[in-house]
Amino acid sequence: MSRSSISTSNGAALAHVVRRGLLFLAPVLLIGGFGELVLWRAREGWPPARVLVEWAKDPRTIYGPRFFTTNIVWIKGAMIREHRPQVITLGSSRVTQFRAPMFGPLEGSFYNAGHLVTGTSELEKVAALFLSGELPRPKAMIVGLDPWWMKIAPHRDQPESTSEHLPEASPTISAAAHLEALRLFFSEPQFPPTLLWPGTAVRDAAYGHNAIGLGALAGNGYRRDGSVLQTSMVQDYLRTRQYADRETPPVIERIRAHTHQFWVTEGLDWAQAERIVAVLRALRAAGMEVYVFLPPFSTEAETALTGDPALARWYAEYRTDLPQWLATEGFACANVRSPADFGMTDEAMMDGFHPGDVLMTHVLEALIRQAPPVSVLASIPVAGLQQLRQAPGVVPIALNPPRF
Amino acid sequence: MLFNSFAFAVFLPAVFLLYWLLPQRTPRAQNAFLIAASCLFYGWWDWRFLSLLFISSGVDYVAGCLLPRQTNAGRRRALLAASLVTNLGILGFFKYFGFFTASFATLLAQLGLHAEPSSLKIILPVGLSFYTFQSIAYTVDIYRGKLQPERNWIDFFAFVSFFPQLVAGPIQRAGDLLPQFQRTRTLSAAEVRRGAEQALWGLFKKVVIADNLAGLVEQIFSQHEQLGARTLFCGAVLFAVQIYCDFSGYSDIALGVSRFFGFTLTRNFAYPYFARNLVEFWQRWHISLSTWFRDYLYIPLGGNRVGAVQRNFNLFVTFAISGLWHGANWTFVAWGIFHGALYVIYLALRGKRTPPPESGGLFPPLRDLGAMALTFATVLVSWIFFRAESLGDALRYLTGLFTRFSGGTAYVDERLLIGAMLAALGLLFADWLGRHRSSPLELGAWSRLVRWPAYYAVIALIFWKGNFQYVPFIYFDF
Fold first, then answer.
1. If you count Cβ atoms within 10 Å of the first and of the last residue's Cβ in chain B, which end, N or C, has fewer?
2. What does the alpha-carbon distance between residue A76 and residue A73 come to, in Å, rounded to a whole number?
3. Nearest CA in chain A to B445
């Protein structure tokens, strides 16, 4: 009989089981502890409130966690409460290239709330925060609407967007999130080894910004104005000077495969569209100027969408019928199909559906030109946008590319 | 609380330590502690539904205590009826109310009458189908005189609410589990190790295999009308492996965790996809439910004591009701009827012959291999009914499976599909190698130098390849 099968008293057996269990788990705990150390040194696991403090100390700080990503909802909410911006952009990641310097005299009172909304329900929830006063109301709001928020679902229930759950706005990082972060970290354990030396400055390699998080160390993350710095994509462009669909998986593949946002549909879901327009009406009725932005695709992706019988009707309704309806409702709308609308090539796109910031200056200019003469947006000089585009060093994909 | 959640990872060691630190002169303190832990475990999901658990088990406790004192047959029947009405009433209301009102409205509509089905949005309390069946079996066994009632309410509630098997079984018989609550338990390191091996393997099956297959299966079943036969076949195979890993994974965790506390639960799965015929399949798949239906429905209907026609009818009814138990949808009924029909046909063809015992070797005889493949193919067809949204959907899927050989128009990532099929086959191969043990990871006889690396490898796979998104166990819906 083996020693382990002998039960003497339960106390002794418990001590034996606990000892054996700890011995077995020791390597697992050691490896986990090492991961936690790296994440802490990269400031990945910093409490979100500390990010706000860091932005107050150094406005050029980039917040780019690779693994603890859900706290951005709390952070963006806190930034809006703290800075009470007059102009806000709202939408998915496809509006995150609107940047404060584009807004000229309103530079200091702009905030990009992109990434907070990825579907109709989320738009309703976030709009409700502004309408109820839980978040301070801006004077103007630019709302980006993605076509996949409005799709007729096939015979079975489909999610109405890629992610219909507004992540819990939490100022803390849960233990479960730590575990998940460790799992992801060990799947791709990339970090500068110098990070582990005490006293090493934590700055991104491309711009030298103060970095919070492993993503920020590579120059990818949120700026203080809520916009997103995408250094890796810009560097990739600078290497080739050519457009590439850098999304994972590429947008063009998603369209061809009818996966992700591009599952087969019969057309635009007008009930969803009505809910969205109702939100826009409510925001306007509350005294805000509301501008709508229908974000572009790369020419390649646009051609694929218009030529695909399973998606063409939906896309055509999004591009023609929806803007017409918005116009009858009195909403200014920048309906940007592709960079070609502004005489640019796909080089102005980060990937198949994320426009770069140079293209966004054109979008903003188009909205300013549609704005009423006496309005917040009309107070932004268009010449300032043109100057930004003509500044030295500007490349089609970025206003301020890193040195390469 | 889900077994594959972080909360459970904290809950389990805490409960384990406190449980074994309690005074053990009698098992009562441990049982009371288990009730509290089970309430926390269940209430983590929604504490309000604990009341249903208390009502169901409360009625059975009282009925159980009163039954032996009654000599009057009418009163005895009334007590049994009280238990059945309470348990089946709760089950019927929460699980089937919407289904029956909608079905009734459809029937009326076909007769030209308009009726608005109830718009009550009734939540199905987790575990309801399992603990009500466990409670019913307890009262019926006392009524039949096969079991003495448990008069200590702590022991009884600990038995009904025992958290490892509370929400998705295995459905335990009081005769097996209650005595374990009555005796003093001793902690055995060997039992804890066996439990950990089984739970670890269950967790692997759930988060690495089942949950990673779930997305691909959903993709195939949701756009099956645009997919070719080959992809549809893969979809059916992957769902077969997904549901097996999901449910048997849960059962393995339940059995493993129970061992930590000194309990042995009845086995729920015995490598069902290696069954050589449908009778064997039902002796290996969801064993606790199959035997429940055998003992509390099929035998009371007459069992094998009646003529062949009546017996076949009884089998048919038992399978149909078993299908409905799985969910309030006609697809489940069709699944049950399909199995019932083939089971009856198999019995008729087999006659009095019994298949030879299974060979224990690494390579099965060709005859056995053919029989396993045929049984698996039959089960595969049935799973299409089980998984489909509607009967029409299932029939369209089957039509596509047998006609659309030229391929489809929709796209499924080939590499992903091949990877998933390889993972599924790999899992079945591991099961084949370990089929004479309670789990392939049961390596108790091996040296620590072999065992520990094997455990670490499984932990690493769970850590790296596990899907820790919120994917509830499929059987939570049943």
1. N
2. 5
3. A2
Q: Which of A11, A20, A263 sits opposite B189 (nearest CB)?
A: A20
Residue of A17, A183, A257 lying closest to B463 (CB–CB): A183
User: Residue A368 class from Cβ within 10 Å (0-12 exposed, 13-18 middle, 19+ buried)?
Assistant: buried
Task: Give B213-236 as a DSSP string.
Answer: HHHHHHHHHHTGGGS-HHHHHHHH
Q: What integer is the mean pLDDT of A202-216?
A: 89
* DSSP letter for each residue of B7-43: HHHHHHHHHHHHHHHS--SSTHHHHHHHHHHHHHHHH
Is the separation of the CB atoms in A291 and A141 below 8 Å?
Answer: yes
| Contact call for A5 and B189, based on CB within 8 A | yes
A5 contact residues in B (CB cutoff 8 A) = 188-190
The whole-number pLDDT of residue A160 equals: 41
Residue appearing with tokens 């089960």? B379
Residue A238 has pLDDT above 80, yes or no: yes
Nearest alpha carbon to residue A258 among A219, A224, A309: A309
Check whether A159 has a pLDDT greater than 50.
no
Distance CA B363, CA A95 (A): 60
- Is residue A130 scored above 90 in pLDDT? yes
CB atoms near residue B235 (< 10 Å)? 29
Distance CA B279, CA B272 (A): 11
Nearest CA-CA partner of B455 in B263, B199, B187, B164? B199
Q: Are B261 and B163 a contacting pair, CB within 8 Å?
A: no
Q: What is the Cα B437 distance to its own chain's centre?
A: 20
How many Cα neighbours within 13 Å face the side chain of A250? 13
Non-local CB neighbours of B379 within 8 Å, separated by 6+ positions: B240, B272, B273, B278, B281
ipTM strictly over 0.85? no
Residue B145: count of CB within 10 angstroms of its CB = 9
- Interface size A-B, in CB pairs within 8 Å, comes to 74
Q: pLDDT over 70 for what percent of chain A?
A: 91
CB contact under 8 A, A24 and B192: no
3-state secondary structure of B440: coil
Q: Can you say how many angstroms the Cα of residue A182 is from the centroid of all Cα atoms in its chain?
A: 22
Specify the pairing of strand A220-222 against strand A228-230.
antiparallel
Q: Which of these ranges, A37-46, A162-171, B227-236, has the smallest mean pLDDT?
A: A162-171
* C-beta separation of B101 from B28 below 8 A: no
Closest by CA position to A161, among listed A144, A142, A136: A144
Mean pLDDT of A58-72: 86
- Smallest Cβ–Cβ distance between B186 and the set A4, A10, A156 belongs to A10
* Cβ proximity of A110 and A399 under 8 Å: no
Whether the per-residue pLDDT at B134 is higher than 70: the answer is yes
- Whether A388 contacts A192, CB under 8 Å: no
C-alpha distances in angstroms, B237 versus A299, B215, B281, B424?
A: 40, 14, 16, 8
> DSSP E strands: which ranges in A17-160?
62-63, 87-91, 110-114, 140-144
Q: What is the C-alpha separation between A305 and A295, in angstroms, rounded?
A: 14
- Number of H helices and E strands in chain A, helices first, is 14, 9
Q: Which band of pLDDT confidence, cut at 50, 70 and 90, is reported for residue B99? A: low
Identity of the residue numbered B12: L
d(CA A116, CA B323): 43
Residue B466's DSSP bridge partners are none
pLDDT average, residue stretch A362-374: 96
Q: In the numeric block, which tokens belong to residue A295? A: 């974000």
* Strand order, beta sheet including A211-212: A211-212, A62-63, A220-222, A228-230
From the centroid of its chain, how far is CA B17?
29
DSSP A330: T
DSSP conformation class of A401: P
Q: Which residue has the tokens 């002796």?
A: B283
How does strand A87-91 pair with strand A140-144? parallel
